[in-house]
Prior knowledge:
The protein has a domain at about 65-100. It is built from four helices and no strands. The protein has helices at about 5-25, 45-50, 65-75, 80-95. The longest helix is centred in the first third of the chain and has 21 residues, at about 5-25.
Amino acid sequence: MSAKTQRSEVSEKANAGARQRYAGTKIKYTDEPLGKTQVIPDFLPSPSELAFREEGVKVTLALSKKSVEFFKSEATKHHTQYQRMIRRLLDSYVDAHALTPRSSGTRQKRRAP
Length: 113
């Protein structure tokens, strides 16, 4: 019998003991007041919003070496992809700075003071 098999048998026995201990535990419910409660607005996105994925457009973009190194480092810390972080940053910028639609579809120039 290999050491791995012995370890898995020991693990199984330990898990079986834990299941038996907690399987017999009964939850006792009481009819007590909950105290002051507060209803909060629903802040979770709907399932359709979670499943939605915006259409992507592939582009070639030259970034500074320090920017790419920064995003790669941060992405590694947060277990994600650095391209995804850059894309979300750009999307956030657009959401914050998007102009309201105008009939002409172009941005008006500012007058010099």
